[in-house]
Each structure stands twice: as structure tokens, then as C-alpha cells.
Amino acid sequence: MRVAVEMTLKGLDRFDLAILRNLAGNGRISVTDLARRVGLSKSPTQARLRRLEKSGIITGYRAMINPITFGLDHVSFVEVSLNDTREAALTDFNFRVVQIPEIEQVHLIAGSFDYLLKVRTQSITDYRRVLAEQISTLPHVAKTSTYVAMEAVKETTSEDLI
User: Fold this and answer.
1) Which end of the chain is less enclosed by CB atoms within 10 A, N or C?
2) Burial class for 14, CB neighbours closer than 10 Å (0-12, 13-18, 19+)
3) pLDDT of residue 68
4) Letter string b/e over residues 91-110, b meaning 16 or more CB atoms within 10 A of that residue's CB
5) What gap in Å lies between CA 23 and CA 52, rounded to an integer?
6) Domain ranges, residue 10
7) What is the pLDDT of residues 7-18, one digit of tens each?
8) What is the pLDDT of residue 7?
9) CA dihedral for 113, 156, 59, 14, sign (positive or negative)
10) How many domains does the chain have?
11) Does 49 reside within a domain?
12) What are the angstrom distances between the C-alpha of 148 and each of 74, 117, 119, 133?
């Protein structure tokens, strides 16, 4: 995977990629420690960081919180088919779907359905409520199909991609 990423990130050298790998693993690393790990002095490392941020390659820094510690261990994947897939309908759906906090991910799909949603709740009862009261009432929803995840075998983070 790393080779494919390096090929798609043209214009980034080995120092840029090392900076990205280190930050993906620890976004709280000091610039001094980051510089030491990538083999540069502090000033060039800071300049590279600013360039990576300004170019949009680094979009922010955040804490990764384990949702299971909050009792949010029920994960469902939902296929959503719309009754209208013209641009205005997709825009309506997109605007509303991102407002549902239980939905972690939304993907427009090229396939036999239109969207794939990852929904995280505390229980199947909570999921059923979210499906009935929120997902099914979204604009242009014609049909949904739910798949309940029994176990997360692998969840890749950006650290694993670079």
C-alpha cells in the first residue's frame, strides 16, 4: 500500500512522507522530536509542516476516541437506495444525512444501491430507532438493507496508509 500512496503523492519526498507517517502515528509529537525522527533540523521540519498544512495534505489534528468506552459498540452498515438520483436529490440527501450523529461514514456507491452508511449505536434497539426515525425519513429514500457487524477485524487509520 505504501508504494501506491507514494506514487499518488507526487511532489512529496521521503522527508515529507516520513513527517506524515510520524504525525499519523502521533499527532502530538513535538516539532523537535519530529525533526529528530525524520532526520532534519527543526526549522526545515516546521517549514515542511506549514507547506503540508497549507496544501491541504494535512487537514487537521485530532484525538482518536474509542467509541466502545462510551458503550457505542453496535455497528451496522446500511445500504440505501434512492428513488431519485439526479443531482438535486443527491444534494438533498447529502445535506440531511450528515446531520445524523449516529452515522459515522457515508459513501456514495457505484453499484446496485446508492449509499453505504456506517451507523454506530449502543444497541440494536437504538439502531432500530435511528433507522425508523431518521434514516428512513431522509429525502428520496426508497429502500434500505442493514448488515450488523459482529466484530471489527481491521479498521485502518491514516497511519497505516502512508
Assistant:
1) N
2) exposed
3) 86
4) ebbeebbeebebbeebeeee
5) 11
6) 2-54
7) 456 689 999 999
8) 44
9) negative
10) 2
11) yes
12) 8, 12, 10, 18
Which residues lie closer than 8 Å to 98 by C-beta, 6 or more apart?
A: 106
- Grid cell in block for residue 62: 485530532
**Which grid coordinates belong to 109?**
456507491
The yes-or-no verdict on residue 122 having pLDDT over 80 is yes
HEC letters along the chain? CHHHHHHHCCCCCHHHHHHHHHHHHCCCCCHHHHHHHHCCCHHHHHHHHHHHHHCCCCCCCCCCCCHHHHCCCEEEEEEEEECCCCHHHHHHHHHHHCCCCCEEEEEECCCCCCEEEEEEECCHHHHHHHHHHHHCCCCCEEEEEEEEECCCCCCCCHHHHC
- Rg value, the chain, Cα: 20
| 87 shares its domain with 20 | no
pLDDT of residue 136: 98
C-alpha cell at 111: 453499484
Domain of 41, CATH number, reads: 1.10.10.10
Q: Could you tell me if 74 and 42 lie in one domain?
A: no
Tell whether 162 is covered by a domain: no
